[in-house]
Amino acid sequence: MTAKSTTDKKQTKPLTNQTDPNTSAKSSYHHGDLRPTLLQAASEMINAGGVEALSLRKLAEKVGVSRTATYHHFRNKHDLLCAVAAEGFFRWQTIEQAIFNDTERPINDRYRQFIFKYIDFAANNPAIYDLMFGHTLWKNDHSNQELRDIAYPVFQHQVEMTKAWQQAGILPKEENTLRLAQVTWGTMHGIARLLIDGIYADANSIEEMCECAVNVFLAKK
């Protein structure tokens, strides 16, 4: 009886201090924080169930705001998907730039990190990766300006990185920089697709493929 009474007290005591999740979400909205919250929640929903699992109504319910609040930031589901993909490109751009700018790490190792981190990003964000590079947003020019404004510069930065690596002598100088960047990206994308599609789900196989790609692209001394 004593134990039960103690438990009852613990159950009733904190009720007045609990925060209503809807109130918290609406408060965030009033402070201009709703858009990143929506994007984070949308990304989680896509990673969990694919783009089919996402709708503005379900997103509003998950975050705890009205559907009208979501329409304030995204005109429709397509607009939301483009924003989620754009956020994915921004995240990868941050990783990519950190690798390139890490001058304390040997340049060969930075190139190796670039290959491995790309595959790691795809493996940890398979549904978002599909959205970033798949036909849903790119076939028949379904991308919007927001997405193009981040996606194209991300690849352009890879071209600039490739040129710098050529000048440093770790990539073949005789190759056309743009074509070399395209072939490098095509190789990484192919490995990522094999992993995401489950064709080579074994981590050791993927690691060996990445290592092979590094060895193939790095200029032989």
Overall description:
74% of the residues lie in helices and 0% in strands. By secondary structure, the chain is mostly helical. The protein folds into two domains: 32-74, Homeodomain-like (Arc Repressor Mutant, subunit A); 85-217, Orthogonal Bundle (Tetracycline Repressor, domain 2), CATH 1.10.357.10. The protein starts with a helix and ends with a helix. Residues 1-31 have low confidence and may be disordered.
Poorly predicted tracts of residues = 1-31
Portion of residues in helices? over 70%
How many DSSP E strands?
Answer: 0
Query: Averaged pLDDT, please?
Result: 84
* Tally of separate domains: 2
What is the fold's blueprint, element by element?
Blueprint: H1 2-12, H2 21-30, H3 34-49, H4 56-63, H5 67-71, H6 77-101, H7 107-124, H8 126-133, H9 135-138, H10 145-167, H11 177-196, H12 203-217
Spell out the key features of this protein:
elongated; Arc Repressor Mutant, subunit A; disordered N terminus; mainly alpha; 12 helices; single chain; 221 residues; Tetracycline Repressor, domain 2
Give the structure's gist in a few sentences.
It contains twelve helices and no strands.
